[in-house]
Amino acid sequence: MKEDNQEPWLEKLLDKSRSLKWCVKSYCTTCGCEKFRGHFLVLLSQKIGFELPAQTGLRHRLNAISSDYLALCFKETVKALEELPKSSLDKHDNQALEVILIDLYAMKLAPLVSLSQPYGDIIKDTWVEGKFSEMEDVAMRDRESQKERAEYNSPERVKVEVRLEKSSQRKSEINAFLDSFSQCDEKSRLLTLASEELNMPLDVIPPDLIPVNPEIVSTLSAEDKDRLVARIDRRRGVWGELKEMLSG
To answer: How far apart are CA 164 and CA 158, in angstroms?
Structure first.
């Protein structure tokens, strides 16, 4: 970078911030890059020729700058970034430029009524336009990710997932029951159907597995018969046939 007194203000800022080891970590939660950002604003105001507001704190100062001057700051920063020799930038410089771009991106929201050019015309075909495009792509992906997370964690989807999970679990339980039930002899199946512990709906049991042998039915206790009759309720077909045997 140039070393003479005519060194561009942005290069001066990068040189000074590097030599004094100012923090230029974007989104720093410790110092917020206050020294770098504050000096950036001072050099920018000197270049444009306006007096910075007396407020303390960078955010208060920015809020107090008129929209006309913010528009000029925007235009001058775009120009300085475009003219900056990019080939000689090191890691510190690139981090510093990222901080500037973040502030510049926020600054573009300021009204540019004092300039005949909207901000889109100012950055057209510049290095800043490409960087803004990258930032907007990242922001769009972040918004999509946030939307997907919100939809994934929505109460409605969670309820559906719970229902599906319960349904899947219930299907597994029914399949396991039928597998075991089909291996039993007729008397064991009949005792299972009459058992107090039965927690399966009768409708899941295939008709060919329902025992309707009168001799086996007659071996059930009166209590088991009454329970199974109540369980069969108004079902017809093979279940109706079994109910008649139980009630006979």
So the answer is: 10
Alpha helices in the chain (DSSP H): 9-19, 34-48, 58-64, 67-83, 91-107, 119-123, 127-152, 155-183, 186-194, 214-217, 222-232, 238-247
- The 3-state DSSP class for residue 222 equals helix
Of residues 156 and 4, which shows the higher confidence score?
A: 156
206 is written with which tokens?
Answer: 């295939």
pLDDT (tens digit, 9 = 90+) per residue, 29-65?
888 898 999 899 899 999 999 888 777 666 777 778 8
Residues with Cβ within 8 Å of 51's Cβ and at least 6 positions away in sequence, in order, are: 45
Could you tell me the pTM of the whole model?
0.56
Give the largest Cα separation in the chain, rounded.
115
To the nearest 10 degrees (0 to 180), the angle between helices 67-83 and 127-152 is 110
What is the C-alpha to C-alpha distance for residues 131 and 135, in angstroms, rounded to an integer?
6
140 vs 106, residue with greater confidence: 140
Average pLDDT rounded to a whole number, residues 211-234: 91
Coil, strand or helix at 223: helix
Burial string for 142-172 (b: 16+ CB within 10 Å, else e) reads eeeeeeeeeeeeeeeeeeeeeeeeeeeeeee
Q: Per-residue pLDDT tens for 67-114?
A: 788 888 888 999 999 999 988 889 999 999 999 998 888 776 554 544
Alpha-carbon span 242 to 247, nearest angstrom? 9
CA separation (Å) from 130 to 5, 11, 26, 122, 145?
31, 21, 19, 13, 23
HSE, side-chain direction, 13 A CA sphere, residue 126: 20
